[in-house]
Amino acid sequence: MRPPTVSIALPCRNAAATLDEALDSLVAQSCSDFEIVAVDDGSTDRTAAILAEWVSRDDRIKAITVPPSGIVSALQTAAETAIGRLLARMDADDVAARDRLERQVAFLDHHPNLAACGTGVRYIPPHRVRDGARRYEEWINSVVTPEEIERDLYVECPIPHPTLLIRREAFDEVGGYRHTEWPEDYDLILRLSQAGHRLGKLPDVLLQWREGPDRLSRTDVRYGHDAFRRCKVHYLSHRIRDRPVVIWGAGPVGKAFALALKRKDHVISAFVDVDPRKIGQEIHGTPVSPACDALQLRDTYALAAVGSAEGRAAIRDEWRRAGLHEPDDCCAVA
Q1: Under a CB-based contact definition with an 8 Å cutoff, are residues 279 and 288 in contact?
Q2: Residue 202's pLDDT is what?
């Protein structure tokens, strides 16, 4: 029997309220050449029973029940079981557009230089989506091309993980999912980039991404700001190497990155800020300088550590005028 083109890794944990809708959207895909590997991570509700019903109706669905051990272990189990040449992700509370798989498979087939791709997303249900989530949705849907993804790789994870479709050989090459102290999805994307793989995205919204207070990103410390910052600094180190760092932004975000970088033995040579009250002061023994002075420093690596899109854009304009190139000479981390 020929293996399917796509294996969909579907971790489930107490997902009875949304699982039917998620599976409905998958079995109705216009691309039918797939398998679903659903891993029930020790659910205490009707998740196992719902999966059993679906398995009895559709032989493309495999259900595995494991003791509760977390999403990373569930994803590893799904990946080890999967036999498709492409590995897709989906969460048990999300909804895929009917042509999601067909379009993503065609996209990778037409772009053999890409290791993986994502799609645009829309948060649901609307009444639960706050302003911060809408801003994040707008940003993540604006980062589409391989060049944009590489440029914004350290702002946030540019590929919404439930939309991921990745070539199996690239997934295996970088070691699949790993237990870390930060998000497993971001860790995978950064390892792919570090290994030289390029990533792309279909701009259209092909997944409805469920928002709610029980999401891991809201409840698990591995998805908090500190964990994301440690993750970014860990992988940024290979770009910074032994160059002193200039941090553009002397506010809370810049200060937090400076401390995290110092813990990894990086030298901070200057902070940059536009507030005249800050210029001339010192932060952790490092001077706050105007942009014109900082741009005279040679053999440094610049980080934009400001929390607003407008501030990030203004800093990038300064870098371009000074002849700095992302990501070789500089990058945004917030």
Answers
A1: yes
A2: 98
